[in-house]
């Protein structure tokens, strides 16, 4: 080949690269949506775990109060 000849990129290669690029963008968009959904679920679970911790503390306090009441009743 001489220096002045241009190399031509086959049309099939350009089409394949375009299809792969579009496919990659579609996949990335789907992955971003799934990540967003997972982040929402983690946030909801955080709230549930905080509520559960509060309920556990209330349960401990209630159990202590019942034990004090039982002790007073037994002393009578």
Describe this structure in words.
By secondary structure, the protein is an all-alpha fold. The protein contains one helix and no strands. It has one helix spanning 11-75. The longest helix is centred in the middle third of the chain and has 65 residues, at 11-75. It is rod-shaped. The model has no long low-confidence stretch (mean pLDDT 90).
Topology (elements, then pairings):
Blueprint (H helix, E strand, L loop, with lengths): L10 H65 L1
How much helical structure, as a percent, in the residues? over 70%
> How many helices does DSSP assign?
1
How would you describe the shape? Answer: rod-shaped
Major sheet attributes: none
- Given as residue ranges, the uncertain stretches (5+ residues, pLDDT < 50) are none
Share in β-strands: under 5%
The value of Rg in angstroms is: 33 Å
Note the gap between the termini: 112 Å
Number of strands: 0
Mean pLDDT: 90
The secondary-structure class comes to: mainly alpha
Order of helices and strands: H
């Amino acid at each position: 080949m001489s220096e002045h000849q241009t190399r031509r990129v086959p049309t099939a290669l350009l089409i394949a690269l375009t299809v792969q690029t579009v496919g990659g963008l579609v996949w990335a968009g789907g992955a971003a949506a799934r990540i967003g959904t997972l982040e929402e679920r983690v946030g909801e679970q955080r709230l549930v775990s905080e509520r559960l911790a509060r309920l556990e503390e209330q349960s401990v306090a209630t159990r202590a109060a019942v034990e004090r009441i039982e002790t007073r009743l037994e002393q009578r």
